[in-house]
Design a protein that fits this description.
heterodimer, A: 199 residues, mainly alpha, Rna Polymerase Sigma Factor, Chain: A, Arc Repressor Mutant, subunit A, 9 helices, disordered N terminus, B: 407 residues, alpha+beta, Jelly Rolls, 13-stranded mixed sheet, three-stranded antiparallel sheet, 10 helices
């Protein structure tokens, strides 16, 4: 007999959640709470506010579970609702503090941009990738984040960002182009190095 | 193999491919190397594409456990409120058939616990052993049966003598005989019927408490680089530390792997629900047959519930996980647990049958409190009926639990 632990697809989890099975709620919470929290941090520094909004998102789901639709991707579904609510709250807070800063999209910083260059060997390549990344605007960054960190395909990305599918792809392609040339260079170095060693 | 899907793709195609992206993000170093080996003909493109994808990595981090638990408590409370208002019956039906897998890990340090696939399931020698035996039974490697007469029997494996010590006074030889088919040494089994318990010490010093209605199989001596035992039921384990030789408890649905610590596993084959509770340390649950994103990290005071039917692991928080092992000290502690679940536990512990309607369960109050099991069954039932605000009737072969008729 084979024991296989098949972890569930979003759709079965969702159905179970709608039927009120407790495991499904805790599963959804644990699978996505970190993601939502860190997404929130890209929009605001107010962590209490972020936690409150996550709470509201889940309460809304619990309250309305019978009438909710069938999302293709739970993470994206949560994110959409979370982002909308968070933006409203940020706006509210801004009004109170007569703060004019308006946030529309998350402030995405890639890890490579945060890292301090340690070894000289890598510094040149990393620097040039960094230089390239600097050219990316916030929309492009957002699309790249969804594509390469969140597991969202273009259909979900264009839905999230309210752009057409082709422009979602374009936003991503631009970023790829920026990095591709630098990666290629490194590939040549490596090849050269290997050849030398063969002799 | 799905891996071969990528053997003909260009760098451009790869970086746009959602499945490929998930493989790049989801595989550990070792798995990634073997993925590269599987796709060696396209290695150059794959490596280049993976470098591009990794350049866009964003540090994610995790929310600290304290705030995560606090937020969960708020959400969970809201969920219970909504539920109580509506009184859905689904929850009750699930709990009806529920029992628990409990894994409690104490002692510090990082401990790993994971679920693996493709493990051949151990076949216990008798199918109806639990129902057919009044006393606990030891089945030696040779197939010979030894009856254990105590309510709580004690067994210790004596490695040097190739023997087993029973109740601290009888030594029985137990030479590890080889199975004709598999050539592997045959395991020794313990069968604990309903109403009994057994404590056993394995040859590595690991101590195991087996709860009522359990079957357990173990080798006379742990050979190879793992210490594997098999369980159908509930057991509390105090595993002797040995980092080089992980201890694995295999049950019908899960494999639990630790390097040495204390934990409690309960996984009855007949149940379709399991629970894992962690006291201290950290635990990783992951499935081997899934590449992506499906790892569950357990931290203290969390319960991992495994739904057998849907094959889903879910996490929730608990403020007092100690109560999950209270059975070894002859009491059960419950916190907001359905009456049916309490009754199921008592059925196993006392070897009795309760009869009750779904309606009753639906209307019964959740149980919170301790039940001292050292008393007689009657005493325990009496306390329970007071707490749950129900009535009971003792018949010869069963106990009927029913609503109180009020004038």
């Amino acid at each position: 007999m084979t024991v296989s632990v098949k972890l569930n697809t979003d759709s079965t989890i969702w159905t179970d959640f709608k039927e009120g099975r407790d495991y499904a709620l805790s599963y959804i919470y644990n699978q996505h709470v970190d993601f939502l929290f860190f997404y929130g941090k890209k929009m605001t520094a107010d962590e209490e506010l972020i936690l409150d909004v996550i709470h509201d998102v889940f309460c809304y789901l619990i309250e309305k579970k019978e009438s909710l639709g069938e999302p293709q991707n739970i993470r994206m579904y949560l994110l959409k609702s979370f982002r909308r609510k968070l933006l409203l709250e940020i706006e509210k807070a801004n009004k109170q503090e007569s703060n004019k800063v308006t946030v529309q999209e998350p402030n995405i910083v890639f890890s490579i941009e945060e890292e301090i260059i340690k070894s000289e060997e890598h510094s040149e390549r990393e620097l040039s990738i960094k230089e390239g990344l600097k050219k990316l605007n916030s929309k492009q960054r957002e699309a790249l984040y969804y594509k390469f960190n969140c597991g969202f395909d273009y259909e979900l990305i264009c839905d999230l960002m309210s752009v057409s599918k082709s422009s979602a792809r374009q936003l991503v392609s631009r970023g790829i182009a920026v990095v591709k040339s630098h990666v290629q260079e490194q590939g040549f170095h490596l090849l050269f190095f290997l050849k030398r060693n063969c002799f | 193999m799905t891996n071969k899907l990528f053997s003909n793709l260009s760098v451009e195609e790869l970086v746009h491919d959602q499945m490929f992206i998930e493989i790049v993000n989801g595989l550990g170093d070792v798995e990634w190397q073997s993925f590269l080996d599987d796709n060696s003909e396209n290695r150059k493109n794959i490596e280049k594409a993976s470098k591009i994808i990794r350049a866009f990595k964003v540090n994610q981090g995790t929310l600290d456990q304290e705030r995560k638990n606090k937020l969960w408590t708020r959400i969970d409370a809201y969920n219970k409120d909504v539920k109580n208002k509506r009184g859905t019956s689904v929850f009750r039906t699930i709990m009806r058939v529920a029992a628990s897998i409990v894994v409690l890990l104490s002692l510090g340090g990082a401990l790993y616990f994971y679920v693996e696939s493709n493990i051949i399931q151990y076949q216990f020698s008798e199918n109806n052993a639990i129902e057919n035996n009044e006393n606990s039974v030891l089945i030696l490697s040779s197939g010979e049966k030894v009856t254990l007469k105590e309510e709580q029997s004690e067994i210790a494996v004596l490695e040097e003598q190739e023997a087993i010590l029973i109740e601290n006074d009888t030594i029985i030889e137990n030479h590890a005989e080889k199975d004709v088919k598999t050539k592997a040494p045959r395991l020794t089994e313990v069968i604990v019927p309903f109403g009994k318990k057994t404590v056993l010490t394995l040859n590595d010093g690991t101590k195991v408490w087996l709860n009522a209605g359990s079957r357990f199989a173990f080798p006379q001596k742990f050979e190879g680089n793992e210490r594997e035992v098999f369980l159908d039921g509930e057991g509390y384990f105090e595993v002797a530390k040995n980092r080089a030789k992980p201890f694995i408890v295999s049950s019908k649905n899960l494999n639990i792997k630790v390097l040495g610590t204390k934990f409690n596993v309960s996984s009855y084959n007949v149940d379709n629900f399991s629970e894992t509770v962690l006291l201290e340390g950290s635990v990783k649950i992951s499935s081997r047959n899934k590449l992506l994103n499906e790892k569950v990290i357990m931290t203290p005071n969390q319960i991992a519930s495994y739904d057998v039917e849907n094959k889903v692991m879910a996490l929730s928080s608990d403020t007092d996980p100690d109560r999950f092992i209270s059975w070894i000290n002859d009491w059960y502690e419950f916190n907001h647990v359905g009456l049916d679940r309490v009754l199921t536990k008592l059925e196993r512990y006392y070897n009795v049958t309760f009869e009750y309607s779904d309606d009753l369960i639906e209307n019964a109050l959740p149980i919170t409190g301790k039940l001292d099991l050292k008393g007689s069954l009657q005493e325990v039932i009496f306390v329970l009926t007071k707490v749950a605000d129900v009535d009971c009737e003792f018949l010869d072969d069963r106990i009927i639990i029913k609503p109180i008729k009020r004038k």
